[in-house]
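FOLDING PROBLEM:
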Amino acid sequence: MKYKYLISILLIVFLVPSFAQTKLGSGKVSGDMAINGMFYMPDSLIGADKVDSKVRANSWINLNYVNGNLTIGTRYEYYSNPLIDFEKIGYKGQGFTHYFADYKTDLIQVTVGTFYEQFGQGLTFRAYEDRQLGIDNSLLGARVKVNPYKGVFVKGIWGIERNNFDFDYTKRTDFVRGIDGEINLDEWIKIFSEKGINLTFGGSFVSKFEKSTEDIYFILFPNDTLISRTGTIPASKIPQNVGICAYRMNFGYKGFRLEAEYASKINDPNNSNDYIYKKGEALFTTLSYSTKGFGISGSFIRADNMDFRSQRSISTNSLMSINNIPAINRQYSYQLLGNYSYSSQPNDQIGFQGQINYRIAKGTKLGGKYGTDLTFNYSRFHSIDKVLVDEAIENGTSTGTDGYTSSFFKFGEDLLYQDLGFDITKKISKKWKLALSYNYLDYNLLALQGHGELVHLHHITSELTYRVNDKHALRGELHGLFTKEDMGNWVYGMIEYSISPKWFFTIADQYNYGNENDAMKIHYYNVSIAYVIGTTRIAANFGKTKEGILCIGGVCRAVPASYGVGLNIATKF
């Protein structure tokens, strides 16, 4: 039976695009579809356990119909037998998960149904999708965007947040509503536009409603007795409406750019903050300057009790949030560094990131014939400073209290993450290009992944590209990660041959040669091939995946170990 479904999906992937090319009336159909499948094989050594169904797949199809100002769309998702990592986060089921109608003019845009949206940097609201992470916190409801005057933009939203395949909205007692506004003064003030000054002010307010029908029970450990007792937060004392507001400003002039946003949330006792009543607040700011051959930027972030969810009791491991605290640290695509990616901490972080980019001019002794690119970056993140309130000390728990006080700009004692990095990229000749990098990291495994200790590591990367001709290229990577903590030293190697724009061949391996346990000195190899024809991409791979975390933009989820053959087909039409 499972193979019948798989064959049906494959037929849809290849046949639907041909039918969709036809115009319906004066409108046009477009969309995309994909199937991401895996044949699992057990490997007890890496922790890839035997699964009840070896053939698994995630698949979906988006269909949009556009006729003038009107767009109608839907999505069908098939996760009845999903990839094991998606099954672990609740993605199991099938059906029409998205359906919407959108009408847009120069003055107004109205959306009814499912939609994605973001206010500012996302400190108050961000509904978005990342299929790789399994994030889809779209809203089912309504959205209105208005441009009543030149340079003035207003958004309003109302809806119920998606929670995987739980679509029985009649049983939901929660919903989200919000408004966002922005004024571009450079479109109002003539001298600003003449001087090339960009100045924007904005603000937003979001409120989530959830009925309070059940008391919250917790354990008290008073310091005046050895006997614990039960404490209670009555349902009547749990706020049903929780509001969060933010103010932002963007300024740009020539090579300078300043962005800043501050958000504040009222008391929001929930599972992620141990049901405390302290207000939340966050500050994000970044300042940058760039000119020919030189760029410098600095960012600062502080987040205190800013986890904001539709359902107060939802698991802290859930990826479903109303807002998003952006990651300001440098993002890497290197395989080994991915094992130690920083995940943004909405309830407890303060830190900064700085980066300098410099191009040594071509024709100079160091720049050579083509110039040389240098990048230096440094980031550091700590827990925030916390002083427990007296009631929390007396009770032996912060639950049901105001939790703690905190000095806004004071760094806490716990180091979460530190990254010192240096890159050099140089085009040696018309055919050869070399990239080298070094990183030193401090990574708090216990705080960021829930186990282990503070890890100190060095990471070295070399990347060499040889362009055979205009279409053929050979690229190789060699990485080394060196640490005495966690699993010890690693080495990673990769060779990729590409025939643009159709063919890609890759062989890669990461080897944990420094593991103290000889049995765990494992090769995690992977062989892949990809073919592109028009808007369709077909890729197959075979190999092992290490248990760990997957992080994109500071948002992370756990990934189980796996071993097997994968197939991915994606197309647009």
In short: The CA atoms of residues 205 and 539 lie 44 Å apart. The helical segments are 2-20, 84-87, 190-195, 390-395, 445-449.
